[in-house]
Structures are given as C-alpha cells and as structure tokens.
Amino acid sequence: MLLSGILPPITTPFYPDGNVYFKKLESNVERYSRTPVAGIVVLGSTGESIMLSDSERRDVLKSARAAVAPNKVLIAGTGIESAIETLRLTEYAAELGYDVALVRTPHFYRKQMQPANILAFYRTVADRSPLPVMIYNVPPFTAYDIPAEVVIELAGHPNIVAIKESGGDVEKVRKMVEGTKHVKRSASVTETFEAVTPRMLAAAASGSGSNGESGAALVSVGALAGAESKSPPFDSSQGRPFRKEREGMGHPQLPEPAASASKPSSGAVTVVGSLRTRQKEVGFQVLVGAAQKLHPSLEAGAVGAILAFACPAPTTCYEIYTAWKEGDADLARLKQERITKAAQRVGSDLGISGLKYALDWNGYYGGPARLPLLPLTAEVKAEVEQLMADLRN
Known about the structure:
The chain is α/β, with parallel strands linked by helices. It has helices at 22-32, 54-67, 83-96, 115-128, 139-142, 148-154, 170-179, 198-206, 221-225, 294-299, 314-325, 329-349, 351-361, 378-388; strands at residues 5-7, 39-42, 73-77, 100-104, 133-137, 160-165, 185-190, 234-235, 240-241, 262-264, 270-272, 275-282, 285-288, 304-306. The strands form three sheets. An eight-stranded parallel β-sheet has the order 1-14-13-6-5-4-3-2. A four-stranded antiparallel β-sheet has the order 7-12-11-10. Strands 8-9 form a two-stranded antiparallel ribbon. The protein is globular and about 55 Å long.
C-alpha cells in the first residue's frame, strides 16, 4: 500500500465533563476530508488514545470511519502493550474498513524491551493482522527508542509496510531508508499515483460517493499491500488464515475479471467502477512525526509525515511537502522556517492542550483535554494565538 503525503493524527474531542463529543469528532473529520491531506490517523498519541477505555476507542474508530471521505487513507492506532490486545483492536478496525494499523512500540516494561522482544511482538502482530502494519516509534512519550537495526530487520516482513518515526532524528531516518532499499513491493495507485486502498475500491466498485458502505464485492488486503506477501494474515481467534468471505470484514475483495465493476483497460490501467488504477513499486516507507524537521526528513528519504501540528495547520504542512515533491528546495525551506517555531512550541512543548487550543483558534473543535492534562492559561493562549496568526487554515 502506498503511504505518502501529510496525515494529521486527529484529536479526540471531549465535552467539558470528559465524555467523548462524537458530533465534533465527525465535524473535524469531515473538514479534514476537504483539505489536501492524504488521509487521517485515528487514535494516535494526539488522540489521547491512552486516556480512553476500550469501548471508547472502538466508538471513536467507528465514528471517524463514518465521517471520512472515501479518497482519504484511514489509519487506526491499535497499539496496546500486549500483542493479543493489539490484535483485538486491529481486527475491529479492519471490520470497520480501516486501511492500516499504526502499532506503537510496547514500552511499560522497557528494561525487557530488547531486540528479541520487539521482533517477536511485531512479527506476531503482523503475522495475524488483517491490516498492513505501520510501526510507531514515539520516544518522547514512551521513553523507548526502537533501534534502526531492528526496524530494518522488521521491514522484510510482508505485512509490515512502514514506520512512523517520531524521534526527530534525521540521521536515523536516513539510516532506515538506506537500510531498507532492498524491500520492493507493488502497490495499487490511481493514475495520478495517489494511494488506493480496499475501502476506496469498494466505494468505486459500488458507485458510492460517500464512504463505500455498499456491500460491494471486496478485495483482499494482500492484493494492495504488495507482491512480496508470502502468506495470508491469520485469524488469531480461529488459528487460521483470514478468508475473503469472513463476515463483517470491511475490506473489499476485487471483483472477478468477468464482473462489470472491474475490467482491464489499455496498458497497465485497470478500471474498477469509476476508479482507474495502476501498479507502482514501493519500498518500506518511512514517515516522520516532527513537523519542525519535516523538510530535512523528506530530504533524508522520508515519503511523508503524520504530524500533530497538521491537526490545526494541515494546509500549511502540506505546502512544505508539495514544494519538496515538486523539487523546489528553496520554497520548501522557506515554508519550513515559517512553521518551525510554532510547531515546536504548540505541537511539542505545550502538547495536547496547546494543540487543542490551536484547533479552536483555526476553526476546528479542540475543546478540553482529559485530566491530568490541564487547559492553557490566558497568557499561554495569547502566545498560541500569536504563533498561529499567519498559519490559519
């Protein structure tokens, strides 16, 4: 699966009493769907996922899924400390129709998180996951930094397709990119080389203009994840491979060639309903999480970013990526300089409360964070307003 561009890891809105504000969640997702971001991430660190109960996590995943546009990649944060709980949430996300599972590094027993432990954890999850897996390294929160050598070894697994690297170490990004150049996979993309996911194919095959919930014939994840796959994902509850007839699975299976929804076109183009697709070679994909280092990370080989700062400023972050993509390094540097101070202060130093206030300032719904996170003081709010004044999206 192709992963590139800018993706905001959306916040989870709350009422003042701490309950999840689902209407505001859906409103934010609908607004992000109208921006040029490549997709959205639900239940990342910025989503306060660690503050939510299991039932709340499931409800948040369901609510965001219902509101997202069909052309946006949809990533679910499913990482929990144990492999079995991670798989349970990943399977639920797959049933809803999510495209990728973002699995953070386990860290609570960090002294025991040796390479053998991490390798066993991710391989077990990836072997059984019905979704492609993205490793999530976020040492500012976990106090654990997965070594580049371990990432390079994991990159060979056919169901581990990417990493979100939030350590802010540009040289580590370069090392991971160089060390995984041997990984070659084929992914379905649009004619303009944008991502195609099973959910998008379902929507196209059915002629759906909303969220692809049509009951159309479905396509296996393996068909999109790449040609390297050696075996199907496993159903951990049944001890057998997932089958395309599994009831409730939200991922589409490609219709048979004879079906009217899918037919070969000229050259390498395939038509699925209203969607024209082709194949593109992709490798192991490195995305980063530090907006203040976005441009140098792209120069080091990253293909995109999942940025907390993209929650209040998605278009501003996208402009850096686009300038770099177009080969205009000077413009990319200029746009990077424009956000660096705000990204560091609002996105990193002030954390969730700062980001949520910036969301309110830029027309999204931020609202309160959950305790023990506290709201900003009036003085700090004024500072955020000043930093965001030229970055309204």
